[in-house]
Amino acid sequence: MFRFHKSLDVITLFHKPSVPASIRVLTLLKQVSAQASETATEDQATDHKHQNKLQRTEFELNITEDPPTGDQMRTILEYMGAHNAGRLVEGAKDSGDAIKKLRENPTTFKPPVTVDWNNGRAVVGDHESEIMKMIAQLPKETGSG
């Protein structure tokens, strides 16, 4: 009998290798993603009742060095509030201004930005506690026995 599982939530990191904060976030996300996958594999390979009760937070990690598209930027600002436009795009006053500035000059984008598209959250910068909180709030999958 086949069981269909919900697809994994997608977490995107808008990354720039020359930005130390971006490298820290990339490292953190890769570690958390690897640990979640490891736990899932262990759970699937064993039949221990205590492991069946474990909750895991697996997610699909998408890393891009491109700045967000206009639509992506609009969505991110919906998650964060348009008043945060200047945190994402240098000199931006609101959502429309951020999109315009980004289109005119993609280097005005300020990475890193971590986005949970499925649950409508975004974190600007390398705020580890906020990123971990965002991941912890992903829907958990529990093993069944």
Descriptive overview:
This protein has 145 residues and is of the alpha+beta class. Helices cover 44% and strands 17% of the residues. It has 6 helices and 6 strands, in the order βααββαααββαβ. It has helices at 20-45, 49-52, 70-80, 85-88, 95-104, 128-136; strands at residues 9-14, 55-56, 59-64, 113-116, 121-124, 141-142. The strands form 2 sheets. It has a 4-stranded mixed sheet with strand order 3-1-4-5, sandwiched between helices. A hairpin with a 4-residue loop joins strand 4 and strand 5 (121-124). Helix 3 (70-80) runs antiparallel to helix 5. The chain starts with 8 loop residues before the first strand and ends with a strand. The relative contact order is 0.23.
Average of the residue pLDDT scores: 84
Number of helices: 6
Number of strands: 6
What is the N-to-C succession of helices and strands?
EHHEEHHHEEHE
Work out the radius of gyration: 17 Å
Range of helix content: 40-55%
> What class do helices, strands and sheet pairing give?
alpha+beta
What share of the residues does DSSP label as strand, in percent?
15-25%
Shape: globular
The major pleated sheet works out as: 4 strands, mixed
User: N- to C-terminal separation?
Assistant: 15 Å
Q: What low-confidence regions span 5 or more consecutive residues with pLDDT below 50?
A: 40-55
Strand order of the largest sheet: 3-1-4-5
